Amino acid sequence: MEKIRIQKMLSDCGVASRRKAEDMIKKGIVFVNGKKACIGDKVDPKIDKVAVGGRPVDYKTKKYYIMLNKPRGYVSTMNDELDRKCVANLTLDVPEKVYPVGRLDKDSEGLLLMTNDGDFANAVIHPSKHIEKVYRVTVKPKVTEDQLVKMSSGMEIDGYKTEPAKITVIKTEAQRVVLEIALKEGRNRQIRKMCEQVNLEVARLKRISIGTLKLGMLKPGKWRDLTAEEVKRLARMEKRK
Question: Cα–Cα distance between 111 and 145 in angstroms, integer?
Answer without folding.
Answer: 29
